[in-house]
Write a structure and sequence with these properties.
The chain is of the alpha/beta class. It has 6 helices and 5 strands; from the N terminus they run H-E-H-E-H-E-H-E-H-E-H. A 5-stranded parallel sheet has the order 2-1-3-4-5, with helices on both faces. Helix 1 crosses helix 6. The longest helix has 13 residues. It is globular and about 35 Å long.
């Protein structure tokens, strides 16, 4: 795990930003603190609508998306993100059952999914795979 963390620290500055779209303040705070510690610029969004009000993420960015969001769902946000001209790298977060995740992600290919509760290891592993 230390090697994954070291790789993320070396490469974190190569991305423009990491967007965190999460309505739970505890999850958002913890994830943002870890990402900032790894050297990423973090932009927090409490829901999809908040992300829509800002400049869209670019292909250099990473977006962590909670699958269950108030208002516009995480699945709808994922569909929008994947159809951008230069889509960002995406990590889906969910504490739902695998069958619920599969149902919500139906028709959306290639999503990286991490399960809640989030762990330091699962986050750094996803980042290492996205950066590699």
């Amino acid at each position: 795990m230390q090697e994954q963390l070291a790789g993320c620290e070396r490469l974190g500055s190569g991305f423009m930003a990491v967007h965190v779209v999460e309505d739970d303040p505890g999850v958002s705070d913890s994830l943002s603190l870890l990402l900032e510690h790894l050297g990423f610029e973090v932009v927090r969004h409490t829901d999809a609508e908040d992300l829509f009000r800002s400049a869209p993420p670019s292909g250099n960015d990473i977006v962590f998306v909670d699958l269950i969001l108030p208002g516009i769902s995480g699945a709808e946000l994922l569909r929008w993100l994947t159809h951008l001209k230069d889509p960002p790298r995406i990590v889906v977060m969910s504490g739902q059952s695998q069958s619920t995740i599969d149902l919500q992600l139906r028709g959306i290919d290639g999503m990286n999914v991490i399960r809640k509760p989030l762990s330091h290891g699962s986050i750094t592993q996803q980042l290492a795979q996205l950066i590699a």
